[in-house]
Design brief:
- The protein is α/β, with parallel strands linked by helices and about 350 residues long.
- Helix content is about 35%, strand content about 25%.
- It folds into 2 domains: about 240 residues, P-loop containing nucleotide triphosphate hydrolases (Rossmann fold); about 70 residues, 2-Layer Sandwich (Alpha-Beta Plaits).
- The protein contains 12 helices and 14 strands.
- The strands form 3 sheets. The protein has a 6-stranded mixed beta sheet, with helices on both faces.
- The longest helix has 16 residues.
Length: about 350
Amino acid sequence: MAVGIRTRDLRKVYTSPPPLAVRGAALSGGFGKKPKGAKAPNVVALDGLSLEVAGGEIFGLLGPNGAGKSTTVGILTTRVRPSSGEAYIGEFDVWRQQVQAKRLIGVVQQRPNLDFSLTAREILLFHGAYFGMASQERHKRANELLERFQLTPRADDLTRGFSGGMMQRLSLARAMMHDPQVLFLDEPSTGLDPQTRLLLWTIIREYNARGKTILITTHNMEEADALCNRLAIVDHGKVIALGTPAELKASIPGGYLLQLRFSSAPPELMESLRRISGITEVRPNGEGIDVYADRGGSLISAIVAAAAESSVELRDVHISEPSLENLFLHHTGRSLRQ
């Protein structure tokens, strides 16, 4: 039976600089040298985050740096202790039953943490031994993974000479060595070339097809759309949207986003835009206006006419089709990459 993941009201407050993998949460909070006698700052990385991931599902946590994605993975993999709330891998509470939970999971961290004094083969064999695999079994498994991840020609080389893509492939192979029921991938495609990224995506799909549960954190919309059965968009430690990629994109008013820049944006222009057929929402955005609509380019002539009526000039237009990026913009008013 496939193993699921569950969290309820997870909260994490850092009162000292967090680990490197989750430090983005602290950057906006101003961690740094504290004045003498000053009280330690509190940075809320998770603020009541609740999730339920079904067994056998590829589930994505999508959000910008500092949103709380890596902290969530840190808690679920027993590396970060929550301030409050509950987290389960299958039936096991990850903090009260750490040993049982760890046997079920494999983890690929955001930055490779390989032992550079070992060869690729040794890293896999030692990992298998750590999980109690018999010698013959772990040698067979290591050879299979080295071949599948296209690492056989470098299997007996020290990893200090590996490229970033090779290190990431080896990190995923190591996480899969003991055949875990749940696989955590923290930003798996960061910094990878397109060929390596597609290889990893193929292997992730194959592993999931065997009934394994996979949780991916990413700020790559293409990755989330291509891999995930469902995903949660997270910002400031909270879930702001949840569903399948198709459901989330369909939830945007009108679907299309037109980012308009005018010589000025008087209130009467906003009202004129709202009256155009097909436009469902109009929002000011700094010096410009964001328009959500049921179509894109065919609205430009009506927008130009509305601008002329208000004696302003349309200077720039950017049209986006329905996307997860647009969804994030709609909910937060900022780009997913900010």
